[in-house]
Amino acid sequence: MSEITVTTTNHQAAPRWLGRGQKVEAHTIEEVLTQGGLDWEVSKRPLATTASIPVYKDLGNSKKSINPGFLNCQGTKRHDILLQAIKNLLDHPLESNRVSDLKEAFDLLKDPPLVPLTRDFAIVRNDNNKVLGVLGNGYTCLQNVDCLQVLETLMTTKEVTVERAGTFNDGANVWVIASIPHSIQIGPDIMDQYIRISWSHDGTEKLSATFIAHLRRSNIQISPKVPNARVSVEIRHTLNAKTRIQIAEKLFSEGQKYFDQLEEVLTELVSTPMTEKEMEVYLMTLLPDNTNEDDATPNKHGEIRKASSRNSNSRNRILEIFGDSNPDISHTKYAGLMSVMEWCDNEKSVRVTEKNKEGKTDEEGLQEDSRLQSVWKGSASKMKEKAFSMIFGD
Q1: Rounded to two decimals, what is the model's pTM?
Q2: Banded pLDDT at 307 (limits 50, 70, 90)
């Protein structure tokens, strides 16, 4: 799979959630679905393959590709030809060539039949027939409306306000951001409280709620694992009304507990000194030099840079951010941690895979999608968790 590396450096003007998804100002689940572009359903559909041996095309350089024409004549194209021949005969029954056309189309059905796959099924968006994933016979489709029902009680009581909703990979992954009307303050920093409800239609993610603290002064999100509190809560999607209320109450109480614990931990870090030398040692452990040639990756110019060079540049940049910290938090472990978080969210390189690029023309939007996915579930998220664990464990 080919990949390109994307780096974003102009983060000062970056909007919250990188501007991805749709802005939502809703009072009901139905309004969230409509405004967020999530008012569609999915279905589990049977799969089949051809009974004939595929035809491959020689592309040179010892590479081969399956002949797309072969698959087309065995699949939907054959079906469309037959339907068109029938329609032409009905529209022009007196034209002699219509019967021969129909016979030729009918003869296509004599080709080897399709072989059904009995254990695998396609999960398909009903509004555009986009295949989102392939899953087993026992998989039950999650509908967007069902996944959001847990928010209904919290929205009614105004304990949360849905702010944004969106998808990744054409709808395979779905997310909704809800704001909790509270904040925490660490030194000069104010962090707003959020819940991210997310799920997938391709089996890569369970329906869950994750608590996020968002730093107002810059585009930084933090969701570290803290003692005695859960950062994420799994949610059952087959819920009756009574159970939904119970889950909503649990979410709210777990959120309060999490943000209270997070505030306590960060307050301890802001009162703990950290010299520049200690920061350098910390970063060397977090981003060590690596001279393994296998870890070298070509940049956009085709040049090879070793991981040692990349990590050295990254450490230097994080040290710059650390040195520019607000005087009220300067040279503290909190400043050290936030410097890493800022670099991870806004400057760490992320990769755009061919899967994410499929059918996309908005290059900038694709880059921001990839960055947001990295912050929530990918390499940036893992780096941030490691950074927090290291600095809190010292």
Answers
A1: 0.81
A2: low
Q: What is the dihedral of CA 38, 41, 46, 52, to 10 degrees?
A: -40
What is the pLDDT at residue 89? 82
In DSSP notation, 312-381 reads: HHHHHHHHHHHHTS-TTTTTBHHHHHHHHHHHHHHTS-EEEEHHHHTT---HHHHHHHHHHHHHHTSHHH
Pairing of strands 220-222, 189-200: unpaired
Please report the DSSP string for 46-73 in residue order. Answer: EEEEESSPPPEEEEETTEEEE-HHHHHH
For every residue of 62-115, DSSP letters joined together read TEEEE-HHHHHHHTHHHHHHHHHHHHHHHH-TT-HHHHHHHHHHHHGGGSPPEE
The candidate with the shortest Cα–Cα distance to 188, out of 217, 223, 222, is 217
> Could you tell me the two tokens for 82?
């037959």
Give, for 145, the enclosing helix (H) or strand (E): helix 144-148
Task: List C-alpha distances in Å: 146 to 73, 240, 310.
Answer: 39, 10, 44
Write out the two tokens for 5. Answer: 């590396």
Rounded Cα distance, 286 and 386, in Å: 8
Q: What is the mean pLDDT of residues 174-191?
A: 96
Cα Rg of the chain, angstroms: 26
d(CA 326, CA 70): 64
Instruction: Give the pair of three-digit tokens for residue 81.
Output: 């030809």
Q: State pLDDT tens for residues 318-355.
A: 999 999 999 999 999 999 999 999 999 999 988 886 55
State how far Cα 232 lies from the chain centre. 16
Question: Quick check: 386 and 224 in contact, CB under 8 A?
Answer: no
Local structure of residue 147 (DSSP, 8 states): H
Closest CA to 180 of 152, 212, 149: 212
Amino acid identity of residue 365, one-letter, is G
